[in-house]
Design a protein that fits this description.
Elements lengths: L1 H19 L3 H11 L5 H23 L5 H24 L2 H24 L10 H18 L2 H10 L5 H25 L5 H23 L6 H29 L1
């Protein structure tokens, strides 16, 4: 039963990420972690490996659409952000982390809700300092809360870029963060036999869902697709708030 639910969740999450460019890790963590079907260290390690497989497969056909200038500044922000996230996890107490998670969820929910109701992009691509700042925040929360997807997804979908450029740039950003996270986890001995077992079992579904998402995406106009993406971000933001109020506060 656990394996069936896990594999179904991976398939759906992979398809969603292939279509939108983000959300795979958050969906897996929200569903499987929320149902407590797997311990969190194993779950996060598996989610990182599977997400890395998805973005590598997706980038094979979308790398030509990456907005390299945006990606460069996001990446330059993500690197110190990841380091800051590790520091925050080490030194912030439970109360401070709970408040940070609550603020993060509130920001994502309110910001995405406003964009879902009026999904109009910026008039110009964000300047380098805004992009780098988004990368820093994405790196920090990605380490602290496994939630870089909502931050980077919200930022990228506000850019005046075609959907294929937004998705490709997100894939490239996640390739960097998931690779670094996997290397760190591996160095700490976190890539256990259970992690590899679940990852190997789910890999064929990741391949199938990635192919399905690339060849049979939802037939939606660009504005509707952006509404769908921001609607998904609203759900994720609400989940982070609930997690902070129920799980984080009592944890």
């Amino acid at each position: 039963m656990v394996i069936t639910v896990f594999l179904l969740c991976v398939f759906v999450a992979t398809y969603v990420q292939t279509v939108t460019g983000f959300a795979m890790g958050m969906i897996i963590l929200a569903v499987i972690g929320g149902l407590r079907l797997m311990d969190i260290p194993t779950l996060t390690a598996v989610a990182s490996l599977l997400s890395l497989a998805n973005v590598v497969l997706a980038l094979r056909s979308t790398a030509g659409h990456i907005q390299w200038n945006l990606y460069l500044w996001l990446s330059l922000g993500q690197l110190p952000g990841i380091a800051l996230g590790v520091w925050c996890i080490t030194y912030l107490d439970g109360e401070a982390r709970w408040l940070a998670e609550l603020l993060l969820g509130s920001f994502i929910t309110l910001g995405s809700l406003s964009m879902m109701l009026r999904p109009h992009s910026r008039s110009a691509v964000s300047p380098w300092y805004s992009s780098m700042g988004a990368g820093v925040v994405g790196g920090i929360v990605g380490v602290m809360f496994s939630a870089s997807g909502p931050v980077l997804g919200w930022f990228n979908y506000r850019q005046p870029l075609p959907l294929n450029a937004i998705r490709a740039t997100l894939f490239a950003s996640f390739a960097l963060t998931t690779l670094l996270r996997t290397v760190v986890v591996g160095g700490q001995g976190g890539l256990t036999s259970d992690v590899w077992l679940y990852s190997v079992l789910a890999l064929p579904l990741v391949v199938a869902a990635t192919w399905l998402g690339r060849h049979f995406p939802p037939a939606l106009p660009e504005a509707s697709m952006k509404r769908l993406a921001f609607g998904l971000l609203v759900v994720m933001g609400l989940w982070i708030i609930v997690s902070a109020l129920v799980i984080g506060r009592n944890g």
